[in-house]
Amino acid sequence: MVRKTKEEAEQTRKEIIESARAVFHQCGVSRSTLEKIAKEAGVTRGAIYWHFKDKAELFFAMREDVFAPMVERTDSLLLSDDFANPLDAIEASLKEFFRVLDDCPVVREVFEIMISRCEYVDEFSAVQEEAGRPAYEFLEKMERIYRKAADKGMLRQGLDPTAIARDTWAFTSGLLHLMLGCQKGSDLDKQIPAMISTHMALRRRA
Description:
Blueprint lengths: L1 H26 L6 H8 L3 H7 L3 H24 L7 H18 L1 H12 L11 H4 L1 H19 L9 H21 L6 H14 L5
Helix pairs in contact: 1-2, 1-4, 1-6, 4-5, 4-6, 5-8, 5-10, 8-9, 9-10
């Protein structure tokens, strides 16, 4: 009986997170209330408070529900020892990120919420730093792998790992914003792999 109760509680938590994602995406985070999310999930507001301290904690749970497996997938390529050239690992990781973003509507929804449907004001003004943490972790990983490529003599001469890590960070962010902002029917998703290959080719030692 106890085990069943725990399983039911976990299922309820999952349904609340899925409902929060739907409401955040439809209404925007600032205009989403726990009452709206509770109604979408078919639970009481008290049930939400049993699982989450407040809307901000629910917001981060929604993000981690998607970000954790996404980071695991991209890091398995980025940090892999299977690539003789670290630049190949960066290229494979970036292509996998955008492939998942294109293939998985849930992942795309969460990124749309983070980028265009969340205002970091009022109750969310104190969580902006935490919201931006994954982007800075991405930057740190990029710099580490670029330094590894430089140490192996595979980076184009004269390039500074810190500077080009920031360049790839900005490039990826720009592609992400473009992809999320493109009209349906755009062929940008088909062009992205070639754009990434070109970006990385400029960093490779001749």
